[in-house]
Amino acid sequence: MSDKAQAKNTQDATAAGTAPLGREALIAGITYYGILAALPHIRGVPPAVGIIAGTILFLLLSLAVIRNIALWQIKPLHEFFLLAYPLAGWYSVTVWAEQYQHAAPFISPLESLLFLVTCAFLGRLLSRLVREVNMLVPIAIVLLLVDIFTVFLGPTGEALDKVPELVSRLSIGLPAVGSAVGPEGARGFGFIASAGLGDFIFLALFFAATWRYGLRFDRTFWCIFALVAVAMLGSLALPFLPGIPLLPFIAIGFLIANTGQFTFTPQEKLYLLIAVIFIGAFIAVGVLLTQYLK
Questions:
Q1: Domain limits, the chain
Q2: CB 138 within 8 A of CB 272
């Protein structure tokens, strides 16, 4: 077979593989918008049922959108443009939403969907920096440790206290069931939980890298879904607790799902252990300094 014919077959296979995934992502996106737009208008649902069902649907659909985007067979340049389009759309809808706050229950889901797609393509692009499969283990460990520090004692925690509007703008909220059908109407629209951009970016990174390196893709999806669902529901059930960072649960879900899939030499294991100890010591020093400054 000639090089031209071989290249044409590769392009055809790529197009054939991407087309149905694109349709699946479109269906997931439409469903995502429909569910998030419907939740604030549902009447007569017990609060506990609404919280559990809404959380599970929100998380499952968010993961489904990211999962499908992670599977697309596209080039880096195409990824860049597919990142730019929803990013521009998200910014435009955000500006528009400020002018039409009475339509927030319908505009907010579109804003969330565009933000989710933007994070998914950014995560795909970042996954290309992972040059070998063993890099995923230290990445997961570092994210686990650093996110705990940044949320409870670092810049994320400070931002939540000082500029909550910015944190809210860079997050995706889960609408409260029935919040737009009370006496206040659309003005009563609100959220019961949210997830930040880092959560969705690194979800896409792990999904894309898992698929690229032939790891346990479906198991990764369901392990992450289960752990994050438990974390979100636990946080909602115990409102007196501080906000729980979701990225550690994402990282742990990835590591559990792919246990036994990584092969390290004794020297690599030693380097990994040293890196974890160093990062742990660095975070401990950061905690002490933060407490001292306070």
A1: 3-263
A2: yes
